[in-house]
Hints:
Helix content is about 40%, strand content about 15%. It has about 290 residues and is of the alpha/beta class. A 7-stranded parallel β-sheet has the order 3-2-1-4-5-6-7, with helices on both faces. Helix 3 runs parallel beside helix 4 (about 120-150). It is globular and about 50 Å long. This is NAD(P)-dependent dehydrogenase, short-chain alcohol dehydrogenase family.
Amino acid sequence: MPDLQGKIAVVAGATRGAGRGIAAMLGEAGATVYVTGRSVRGQLSDMGRTETIDETAEIVTAMGGLGIPVRVDHTIESEVKLLFERVAEEQNGRLDLLVNDVWGGDSLTEWGTPFWESSLANGLLMQQRAVFSHMITSYYGAPLMKKRKSGLIIEITDGVNYDYRGNLYYSLAKTSVIHLATAMAADLSDSNVSALALSPGFLRSEAMLEYFGVTEENWQEGARKDPHFIASETPWYIGRAVASLAADPEIMRKSGKAFSTWGLVEEYGYQDKDETQLHWGDYYAEVLSKEG
């Protein structure tokens, strides 16, 4: 297990899904994690979900780290600025890891509809939530790392290349943050601060469990609705990938590149919640590619 005792992390967009899994696994490794998002107890966001950053922070602490919830709308510059001022003040200027996982685009994506027939307003809002928010967050987070000449920024995305993802606005958002990581890595190359992109496989998030009408206890039954669900992974899996990256002493070698949970497991050997080592890439090659 990676040892992140004494490390300071910010996980932006940690209310649920991959962000919650990442924060939890950083807690498992002993890190102090600032858990940010818009949903807090008594004040939920417009996503229509019940999960809160308060719950995520409690999970981080229960796993062995220290979870600190901070309500932040990462599309609002002033709120992001205040977040990193707080981190700098409370942690003596230290920030070891920044994970940009803000998304908010599921309800905005119109699958199967060409872009000129889709809602332009929703498409632009998706870029604001999933790309601009990452730019704003890195703008204020990176200087803390540069000053100490140490740190890692991880962009959470979908896929490891620039191929079309089936919807123009979705594709633009997911590929943009891959290049954001590449560009940040170039600018930070002389500071010993690295930046990279990371993709999960078929993520078995809270929303996906609800969509398939199952729980984590009986999730395999979801394969009756979609056989590919059998190859899904929990948010813990990408969380353990992030923890492994954060503990890697040779992380600068990975700076500027895009990685996946299924690719990194071959190097780091982490396991999912049920002790499996899933490989979405192999599944795609063996099953999905043949269907296509």
